[in-house]
Amino acid sequence: MYVAVKGGERAIENAHAWLAEERRGDSNIAELSVAQIREQMKLAVDRVMAEGSLYDPDLAALAIKQSRGDLIEAIFLIRAYRTTLPRFGTSKPIDTGAMACDRRISATFKDLPGGQVLGPTFDYTHRLLDFKLAADGEVPEAASRPPMSGEVPHVTEFLNREGLIEEAQPEDTPPPDLTREPLEMPANRALRLQALTRSDEGFTLGLAYSTQRGYARNHAFVGELRIGTVSVEMDIPELGFSVEIGEVTVTECETVNQFKGSKTEPPQFTRGYGLVFGQSERKAISMALVDRALRWEELGEDNVGAPAQDTEFVLYHADNIQATGFLEHIKLPHYVDFQSELELVRKLRREAGVSQMQEAAE
Amino acid sequence: MEDTLDERRSRKAWMSVLAKAPEGRVAELLDASMARPEFDWLRAPEIGSTMVRARTGATGAPFNLGEMTITRCALVLSSGEVGHAYIKGRRKADAEAAALVDALMQSPLAESLRKSVLVPLEADLAAAKAARAGKAAATKVDFFTLVRGDD
What we know:
Chain A is an alpha+beta fold. Chain A contains twelve helices and six strands.
């Protein structure tokens, strides 16, 4: 039951003014610009774009500034903004095989066409705080070598040639879209991938880790991890042809998993797939592991009752904006609800008390 | 028919170059090469989104990856050529400049605009790509054998 009450306007206004002041912090310290956040907090920007499900680095940087660095709040702001945008169309599927790779590694093949390209990675750093960053420092120019020529083929293509790995057959069924239709079970793989790519990084990481620790174990190798830019091409109806409208940075992970075979499938390697906006390999690898775990049914594997195998559990709890909305609403006024609970408890206590007194009297 | 296909192909190519140019760059090159012609809006610049799709396992069934912001507009020059722009991001001024160049590329000024706008843009893009690819190449691992444990 809802009862409308008035009050609190001034308190709310003053709270918002104080919030603005706290957001700014000490005014003797230079203010952060949106461009500074976009350029220097790039991985935070990437996470907000991926989970906000809207690629726009400037907007994501603005959201981070407005949210004081609370990334889930920033993602909330981006999701809210997204709903105000008219949708002009749909892109052709991006071609990650034609990616201009900043990074491309394989944990399964040492020598592969295109090579192991480390890119700007935290791997192999010593994780020691670098106090030089606390002082203003010029960054030395990174080394450069003549660019490699030729395309960088996907690792799975090599295994495909021997028929040792399942193929991802090309097809063009239009995928369901959870931003247009409510997410309902059963969810096909396209819908699961859409939900996973915008899912909370921490939740997805935890689930992926659980599969590694034995809950729906499907021993995964990172067949390939690549980060780089791809062109986005969309059909322009008024022109009658498609045009590349720009480039986006994405992270792609393909896992190669052991598979003993089933009644219908020969023993071969199977695949998990992760693809995320921006540079976010932790999320892309997590997504690939969870994708693979959720495929138990189509591959004829046992359901061992692991959380990562439960599509409904995974998809209905992976979205941090839905989760935050429901979780945080309980801090909003529930005076009337609580009043009725209070009445109920008092009544129960009265009844219990009365019967106790009766017992005592008897 | 072949001509039409070729025309379409080259228009597709220049629209892509215009869309990928950094903020403000198309306007800068256009204004340096000529005074802007008169035009009327067919569709004033508007901001919206497109749903970016990808393929399962890179080659399989499509799925929705997420949206991206885009800006589009359409205009007609007083000489009759129609220009369109569909570009990434929220960039109304860039969309206007791109649509103007698109229209002008269909006019007798095409050759001079190709030299003054498209060629420099293509060079910018190629240089930026090469710089990144060069840095990536420098992080390519060269394996060498330390000890082979055969004997």
